[in-house]
TrEMBL record:
SUPFAM superfamilies: Isocitrate/Isopropylmalate dehydrogenase-like
Source organism superkingdom: Bacteria
Protein name (record): Isopropylmalate dehydrogenase-like domain-containing protein
Keyword list, A-Z: Manganese, Metal-binding, NAD, Oxidoreductase
Length: 168
């Protein structure tokens, strides 16, 4: 039987709810298939961790994640914690530490789901938003004084040429 080690980082906001529902679905799939087993370890990293310890995750956080087959990441951010703290303290160290340059977010309206996008008449909505995490905004070499400075770039669906070239 195949076994997979999953690091679950629910973090903040809707993250815990999304991770809990996702793990429930994975548990159902595991039971239905019966040919693999998931072992999940939860990490309490995020804004609450920041408020308690002054950092978003332990200094060796990325090293702790290296033994896992996958990282199931929720959402990060809280109104009272500046965005650059959550971005540079948790999300980007993980993404860049594992060279996870693309964060693909599928979006689809499912039958029976009420959505603000459901008013699109005569079409179904099925898309994927790709967030490039090695763009200049996310690379400290292109920044000064921790401000987000985006260099000149051509945009295609919210991505620079740097991003689209890297994906192909």
């Amino acid at each position: 039987m195949r076994e997979y080690e999953i690091a679950a980082i629910p973090a903040d906001g809707i993250g815990p709810e999304v991770i809990a529902a996702g793990l429930q679905a994975l548990e159902a799939l595991q039971q239905r298939c019966g040919d693999f087993k998931l072992r999940v370890q939860h990490f309490d990293w995020g804004s609450d961790y920041y408020r308690a310890y002054g950092r978003m995750m332990p200094e060796d956080g990325v090293a702790q994640l290296k033994r896992f087959d996958a990282i199931f990441f929720g959402a990060v951010g809280a109104p009272e914690v500046p965005d650059d703290i959550t971005l540079w303290g948790l999300r980007l160290p993980i993404c860049q530490g594992f060279d996870q340059y693309a964060n693909v977010r599928p979006t689809r309206i499912l039958p029976g789901i009420v959505s603000p996008l459901a008013g699109v008449v005569g079409r179904c909505y099925d898309d994927a938003n790709d967030v490039e995490t090695s763009e200049p905004r996310y690379d400290r070499r292109h920044q000064s004084s921790r401000r987000h400075i985006v260099g000149p770039c051509r945009r295609a669906r919210g991505q620079s040429r740097h991003c689209t070239d890297r994906q192909h």
